[in-house]
Amino acid sequence: MAEAGTPKKLPLDALWRARTSKFGDFAGYDMPLQFEGLIAEHNWTRSHAGLFDVSHMGPSFFALPKGHGLEGEAAHKKVASLIERLVPADIQGLKPGQVRYTMITNAEGGVLDDLMIARPAEPGAAGDLYIVVNAGCKHQDWALIEDATKGEANLVRADDRCLLALQGPSAHVVAAAVIDPALAEMSFMSVKRYDAFGRLTVTRSGYTGEDGYEILVRAEHAAELANALLAHPEVKPIGLGARDSLRLEAGLCLYGHDLDATTSPIEADLAWTIQKRRREAKDFPGAARIVAELAHGPKRKRVGIRPNDRAPAREGVEIQAGGKRVGIVTSGGFSPVLNAPISIGYVDAEFAELGAGLDLIIRGQARPATIVPLPFVPHRYYRPQKA
Prior knowledge:
Elements (H helix, E strand, L loop, with lengths): L7 E2 L3 H5 L5 E4 L2 E4 L5 H10 L1 E5 L4 E6 L8 H12 L15 E7 L5 E8 L9 E6 L4 H11 L5 E4 L4 E6 L3 H8 L12 E4 L5 E4 L8 E6 L1 H12 L4 E3 L2 H10 L26 H6 L5 H10 L3 E8 L10 E4 L2 E12 L4 E9 L8 E6 L2 E8 L15
Parallel strand pairs: 1-3, 4-14
Antiparallel strand pairs: 2-3, 4-10, 5-8, 5-9, 6-7, 7-8, 10-13, 11-12, 12-13, 15-18, 15-20, 16-17, 16-19, 17-18, 19-20
């Protein structure tokens, strides 16, 4: 067990240390930051398949107690109604095998964390949910879930397991070859369990904008799975640095930067995560603010920003219009695909129009920039064509 203040080791620590010495503390874990270099790893993921270790995240299983006496849809609606006490998404409406992105909101309509909630595909698991929360918030999130649902359902942490993200245009080829051919036909935002490498819980999801999978595997089978994936010629290990540049190009929020306890889902351009039933019921934390912003618009909006020159605008850079402060950059860096700097930030709603010109105050100098659509690089998620 790690001493207080000492970063925890990943289950595959030895495997990654054999490949790189570039590690850093992230959310209390000692994480591999780079293998070949950020740009090379970023571009490999965009053109082949990258393997990320995201075992610092918070996977868990939330289930009705044994002997609950409910079956099928009734069991699902019961367990979903419990988690809906905390989130604004329609979890009761999930179909078997479907995953939904949502947020835990507070009474003021701010975001306490963003997370994935999945309804298992297997009929025998109708009273279960698979939930993955962010690394830095997981203990807080689990406490909130247990507090809100005390005695009515059981939360089982699974962060002693290994969570691997296989991302990129070749991910489906690799997953089909190494794990099961059926993975190639999974749809984006779906979940399934596979009897391979012990027992796997696989979602077709990720946070790079690319097609791919997140694979939960027990620690004792993790090295066997990781080595089998890495043996495929389309796969290379990818560090935390490229994970961040990929999600930035994809225009995806990073909790603690682009989302926080004061920011509403509507300000963050995440209105699509709140389905009609919940909007009408107004029965989730922060509903008064969120529903009002849905109806009348928020006072500020999350936007994509392209600096007009080569100077990157990173988190904390002030955004001005006509010499007046109108917003702030919350994420920023360099896009290897665009070969240019990119940023995400919040600006007062009146200045959030696409194509609008703004100034970024970098080292005391006003540098011109333009508001552009998100994502910066198109998403390439897999959704089978309907007949």
